[in-house]
Amino acid sequence: MSYFCLLKVLTSAQHEPGYCSFYEDCGLNPAVEGALIPPRVPCKDYRKAVNVTGDHYELFKSVCPMFAHGEGNTLACCSIRQLTALQSSLTLSKAVLIRCPSCADNFAHIHCATTCSPNQSQILKITKTANITQPTGIVKEAVVGYEAYISTNFSDASFRSCKNVRIPATGGYAIATMCGRYGSTLCTPQRWLDFQGDSSNGLAPLDINFKLLSDGQTAGLPPGAVLFADKALNCNETTPTGGEACSCQDCEQSCPAVPQPPPLPKPFMIGRLDGVLVISITIFSCIFFLIMCYVVLECTTHIRKSKGTQKSKSTRDQNENEIEHKISPKDVTCSDKASLATQEFLGSLFQTWGTIMARYPLIVLPVCLVVVLVFAVGIKDIELTTDPVQLWSAPESRAMREKAFHDAHFDPFYRTNQLILTAPDQPSHYYDSLLFGEQNFSGIISKDLIIELLELQQKIQAIEFWSDDLNRTASLKDVCYAPLNPDNPSLTDCAVNSLPQYFQNSIDNLNAKANMTELGVTKEVDWRDHFIYCVNSPLSFKDITALGMSCMADYGGPVFPFLAVGGYENEGYITAEALILTFSLNNYARTDVKFKVAEEWERRFLKIVQEYQKNPNTNFTFAYMAERSLEDEINRTTAEDIPIFMISYAVIFLYIAVALGEYSSCKRILVDSKFLVGLGGILVVGCSVIASMGFYAWIGFPSSLIILQVVPFLVLAVGADNIFIFVLEYQRDMRRPGETREEHIGRVLGNVAPSMLLCSLSECVCFFLGALSTMPAVKSFALYAALAVFMDFILQMTAFVALLSLDARRQDANRCEIACCVTVETPRPSEPNQGILLPLMKKYYAPALLNPVSRVLVVLGVPTYFITTKGFNFTSEEGINAVCSSVGCDQFSFTQKIRYATEYPERSYMAIPASSWVDDYIDWLNPGSKCCRIYTAGPNKDEFCPANETGLFTCAKKCMSIPENGVLRPSVEDFNRFLPDFLSNRPDLQCPKGGLGAYDKAVVRDKETGEIIASRFMAYHTPLVNSQEFTGALEKARELAHNITLTMRNVTGTPQDFEVFPYTVTYVYYEQYLTIVNEGLFNIAVCLIPTFVVCCILLGMDLRSGFLNLLTIVMITVDTVGVMTLWGIDFNAVALINLVTAVGISVEFVSHLTRSFALSIRPTKVERAKEATANMGSAVFAGVAMTNLPGIVVLAFAKAQLIQIFFFRLNLVITLLGLVHGLVFLPVLLSFLGMYSCLNVQSLYTWCSIPKKGGIKHVRTRVGSMKDENFYF
């Protein structure tokens, strides 16, 4: 059919009451191309308004009830055909506005006024016409443009009633889809109506220029014209047809008075100062004062006693030993007796054991090797846990239970694969847009870069590979998230979000240009105009430019601008500094064959991206990630950092080998070196770790990469310390006359093994109790570490003693270590080797540290789902009202409460109200839209008919009838009947409320009974950027969900175990922060208590020494936490593992020294502290500090942030703090507060310090049996 169009502007206007300016349908507008609905326009016809009756009136009453005054009394300017076209057009809008009846009524009022008002000629002026040839061949003049004069009171009130109406599926506002390029934020009444009258939007059939004028204003009105000034309804008013007021969700005026949350607590202040700081300073000052008082008292007492001391006459006992004082058994305390008995028992036991081990090394070593191998065989079945969720969230934690419920009833969160691209060197450019004015585009928003991005996107989309699991070629469509065609997706059904999607991934669309005239100005429009329009109106099916392109992605969904671009302020999308490309894949259980397919696709995705990144011709700088990236990164950095760890261990080994040597002359270097002993010590550590891993692999307990990194380091620190203590003591001790080498080794082991037992047993008990932790990573670490430390001690008492025995044989025979057959003639020195550290400690460090002045100075020193469980009746009217948020719903319903929470985003962390399938289902059922219809003929009679069915009479029946009060509530039968149709209905222009994509996975029904056993409602958190905000969001979401749960349990028939809980993928990671402090305190306390108990027991119930030992370890731990804060180390599960490790390492720094002090025979506490610092402090310094520090420094070069922060920084802090407290603070503390003791069991000779009136008496004596009547000292 050919059309001859004549456009003319009318020079004369006729504006009289009771007259029409146009009447009857004249056909399709020839000036509109690419319309989304048929653009039917009226015929120009100046005539009197028509009295409507019969069917005409009934139709008129249903479409424009506000102008219906009863049959026979109603005049109108629209025919049945016009009413049908108007009804079809309004139906599209009602689909999103019907949830607020007054808004839908006002919107219809505007268009009914301009189309059907009996005074039509007075409120509008025809501005443009066209000739249209009718089917009969007659040419009629049709109206294709007019001006409408509307009162601002009416337009503003109508706009206010609609501006807050929500679209539950997106959480956004309906007005955003009805205001074109301005979106909801910049929309005004004028812009809202302008969009309604813009034929280029694909929905308006003709151009309408709405002129909004104030009441009484006549300027701009043609003679005889008047403003349309009917009363518009407020959103909180009922409609004339009985529709109820809009709900609070869509109308602020309908909201009840909700009490504001209480103000946030003010910072604790004392005056103008921080209260916590003031209290801390006060406590510190009090402690300082008490310490000073004690120091002064101690000094005064010491001086007084020194002055009053007189030498007593010497007497001798029956053994001719010189004595100064005779004491009776009652002078020996229970602690002294217990300590003596403990040391005698342990020393004798270990001496005998050591002698046997040293005597039969060639038997001991193979037996130890066999035992280790038996355990190590289990490693073949070891299971490494790499899933972060399984590492950090306890299986029985609330977050894991909720995740299990979610994953059992709903699909897991889809897998995100994303690129963020920048082009920092690209210059920005200005563009003078016909529609939007001058715009400044950032450098990255350029056509060349968008095309380059599209080429990369298409290359990724084309990934194909052979899958053995599927036994065919797999591609993106096999695993992609395809919301609108989940059953049989094609590549174009896959949800890919990017800027090119605004152009449907078409280069032709990107290159498209067209001339366009606006307000008499003609300019070319191109991709930039389309882009500006789409980022402001992403739900549009057609832009308002001459291009007439859709903004929807090729898969059928919208691309919200925050998913396409980044790095902008406010809503300045054209100034964005980054492009975002996101591929969403379905997530599968790890047992599902498609899980491997998805991971393989992601691996190839990463390969393409990495190759693209290395391409020197690329214009982008970008970051990227895949769902598997976290696990890959853990594995990659672990693999890359293995050499760093190996170097670290090599440095430690080299140090141990060199430091253990006793070098007396250059000729004996190869004889006196201890390379093989050092290597043996390292192998003992390695074997203990392997045995521990093998044992737990035997019993099926999983391991992790963190265990592989931390446990060897910990055991090496513990093991090296014991090695140094043992070997140095052996080197310093002179072999007695007639004593064999094996007996010598046994005797030395008897001296030091109780100290080694003290530390190892403390650490074992500490770690085994640490396994009570609910965090899987902490629990597994504690178990592996405990067994490894235990095995390390056992192997040191057996294999290492045997190895030292063999090395001692070699050294006694003057044979070289590497070339065992070569001997050296230079004899071994007769005096024991004290090494370098012992003389330095004894002559310089200990006296300087423990002089009176130093002693005093040292002492001062994301979307989230709200999920419902089984038991709630969604089908009843009471149940619907308790959930929904549209008209007729409870004011404090499920979704309303979430909406209230969004009013305080800084407190609730909720940004957008929840999408509600219940609300959209009700709107979908509403007969005001054409979503739910029933076939009235054909093979599908009485079944659901989708909105895109175009048959005129095949789907004439609506699913539901119009409710009298406008509040639609289906019966239980109708609810259950049409719910599956709603969930499978694909949304489109005719019915945007279809549930496919948005809700098809949100409702889970029992397959037999149809009962809803689980459902979810999606809301959005505010942007969360750190662990504090993620944790706060989780905590507040749970509070909100609990409040909702309590309300919904009050609905009739709801069981008390019904629950609503929030869920998002990040909750399982951040739940630990809700309990991390309590968890940390519990684990550390569990470690500290057995440390104290074991120390007391092995020191013969020496409570004071045990307390001082515990106090120092607590100080190390507390100071470590303090330095973590200063150095930016977060307190999380990894840090907690290291803090537990810190307790273990602190035991090494502290307990050896404490025991050495407790067993010292020097006369005063200061002398005993000096001796302990010199003898044991040197071994601790060499064995713990100098063993750890070189290895820790090497870790600074690791690539993984996890290792740099939690292994380098934290271990460095732990070692340095342990060193300072163990070798600086503890000796001073013992010199002040340590106990007097009489405990020497070494060869049963002792120096005994006894407090005595008039001074301290001491004498060298042989200790008699505890059964003796008297003890002489």
Automatic annotation (TrEMBL):
One CC-aspect GO term: plasma membrane
Record keyword Nucleotide-binding present: no
Catalysed reactions, semicolon-separated: cholesterol(in) = cholesterol(out)
Protein name, UniProt field: SSD domain-containing protein
Domain SSD per the UniProt entry, residue ranges: 641-806
Cellular localisation: Endomembrane system
Major subcellular site: membrane
Pfam annotation, one family: NPC1_MLD
Family: Belongs to the patched family.
Alphabetical UniProt keywords: Cholesterol metabolism, Disulfide bond, Glycoprotein, Lipid metabolism, Membrane, Signal, Steroid metabolism, Sterol metabolism, Transmembrane, Transmembrane helix, Transport
Membrane-spanning segments: 275-297, 360-379, 642-663, 675-699, 705-728, 748-775, 781-806, 1081-1101, 1107-1127, 1134-1154, 1174-1198, 1210-1236
Membrane topology: Multi-pass membrane protein
GO biological process: cholesterol homeostasis; cholesterol metabolic process; cholesterol transport; intestinal cholesterol absorption
A single GO molecular function term of this UniProt record: cholesterol binding
This protein's record includes keyword Protein biosynthesis: no
PANTHER family recorded: NPC INTRACELLULAR CHOLESTEROL TRANSPORTER 1, NPC1-LIKE INTRACELLULAR CHOLESTEROL TRANSPORTER 1
